[in-house]
Amino acid sequence: MSLNNLISNIEKKLSNLLSSYQNLNDKNLKLEDENKKLTSKIEDNSQIINSLNDKIKIMSISKSVDVSNNDIKQTKLKINEYIREIDKCIAQLNN
Length: 95
Prior knowledge:
With about 100 residues, this protein is mainly α.
């Protein structure tokens, strides 16, 4: 092979390598973007799950009230307990 042929072959291979690099780089950028979107979705879903867990907690507390209990003092204590629990939930949502 002549020197010109060798140089031509090297140029072709280099061109192919550069093209492959650009394609892989484009794919990498797309995958990084998709990763960011999915990470954001996961964070949003985690917040929704935490909010729903807090609602479940509040519902379980509200079911623990004895409806037939006529003692006003006990009822006020239960209401205060609910308010504290709600305040905790709000604080968690703000974080």
